[in-house]
User: What shape does this take?
Amino acid sequence: MHEIIAVGLERRELLAAEKAILVGISRLEGEGLRSMRELAQLALSAGAVPIDVMVQMRRAPDPATYLGKGKVQELRALRLSADAEIVLFDAELTPVQVGNLLDELDCKILDRTELILDIFAQHATSREGQLQVELAQLSYLLPRLVGKGPMMDRIAGGGGGGTAGGVGVRGPGETKLETDRRALRAKMSRLKGQIEEVRRQRAVEHRARERAGLPLVSLVGYTNAGKSALLNALVGSEEVRAHDRLFETLDTTIRRVEIQGAQLLVSDTVGFIHNLPKDLFSAFMATLEQLQQADVIIHVLDASAPWAGTERQASEEMLARLGVADKPTILVLNKWDKIAGTARGERILAEMPDGLPISATQQVGLEKLHARIAEAAYARLVPLSLQLPYDRLELLQLCREHGRILDTEYEEDHVAVNVEVNSELVARLKSFVVAPN
Assistant: This one.
């Protein structure tokens, strides 16, 4: 338990944060440790501080209260004694469970999906991200939109006899509920239309990138693996927020960088997470669709994480769902400085021999990563040996923008240059091509 709630508690900004108790169930002893630790990290990212953990051993959640009746009373006593303001559940609760738990615990109740949505709402800064967050929130709310109080419960449930609802409970209550549902569906429809407009704009931007001929390299991986820190390291700046929180990056970021003499685009994406709720996956598909245009995928893995193998599997499952699992992929074992020279480091290398150990923050292993990126991203480029007259040196800049220059020699009446360029540029350079030595 202490291992779970110790995550990130040294952060000073959390001293005045709301206190939270984490709750989950487990079918086997110790089975829920990884998931509960992740819940603790989610709580910290949302701005709450976990102070205690309760895990009940049971085969399935209780339909009424998620936990058994006795455990709910124990949880109430724990909340009161700890003076906790929030109870966070490591599952998606039903409306019935939420209602009963609110009655029993008399405090704020959030399930895992609501917690993730709250974090998303904090970190969405672009119009696209904000639209996606709102759609996800409404998708979550719609099936939970029910009447309040005993009268509305009876309307929803109906009674005996041929008329649903019974005497005294028909009419405006039900109409109001259906009106609210229609309003939500209409708003969701509008949001989907706006997101579709964003997708069309992205398609225009993608065609512009294709015309420029710049390879696109996309960073993916489990949330908090260090993708933003790696993007900053590749760009050579601190333009992108990179903090030790889950879902710190939500909006897609694209930067132009030069690697081994050539220009390319590097994008950062929202982090993956284990058991991402279906509504969230659907709502954020627009952001993740950008991966389908990537020439190379860099899968960033936090090698120091206790469940690095599980996190790799969760990310690879997401890539498969997106239909990009067959793209050229470089596995990066980030935060290697934390486990270098340890037995754990040796075990990770044995389990993942295809991985490249690096540390984005310590600038370790980046030269090897540059070489891997160049090999994968420039594989489609065509090698040419050129002799360019001095009055056509604009072609040299064109080669730099649409490929890379390998070497250059300035002769008396021309420039001899070896280049690699995209296939669209070959026809334009054809008259200046010479046979290699």
